[in-house]
Amino acid sequence: MQVYRGILLALLVAGPAQAQEVSVSEGSDLYRTYCWQCHGFESNGDGPMAEMLAIRTPDLTKLAGENDGVFPTDRIAEQIDGRSQLLAHGGEMPIFGAVFETDQQIAVALPNGQPMMVGLPLANLLAFLESIQSE
């Protein structure tokens, strides 16, 4: 019985990933459309709208560096999709939170190896954010 559960879990996790490819390029496009206004064109927190927020806009290129070198996939996903409240504006990211609501779900791997289901657009954005991490 244990073996069947393992196989079923593997199929559930691997199935969506094979059917729907995560794209750093599409994540970059999403960032350029929805995120740069606050987080800046270079993702370092100096966008033209940053000064209007209640708290300092983070430098998105240093997320891994501020987390012992590990990109905090779950924390970032939960802040973007609204599972974790943001002090700057509460709920999901403003204006465009619905962009990440989709039936196209995909499993992304968390730093501990566990899968987390997120919408494909959010998976793309996470892939882009992970790709821009600096030392």
From TrEMBL:
Pfam families tied to this protein: Cytochrom_C
Listed PROSITE patterns: CYTC
Domain of life: Bacteria
Keyword annotations from UniProtKB, A to Z: Heme, Iron, Metal-binding, Signal
Secretion signal span: 1-19
Keyword Signal: yes
Entry annotated with the keyword GTP-binding: no
SUPFAM superfamilies listed in its UniProt record: Cytochrome c (SSF46626)
InterPro entries, alphabetized: Cyt_c-like_dom, Cyt_c-like_dom_sf
Molecular function GO labels: electron transfer activity; heme binding; metal ion binding
Domain Cytochrome c, first and last residues per copy: 22-133
Protein name as catalogued: Cytochrome c domain-containing protein
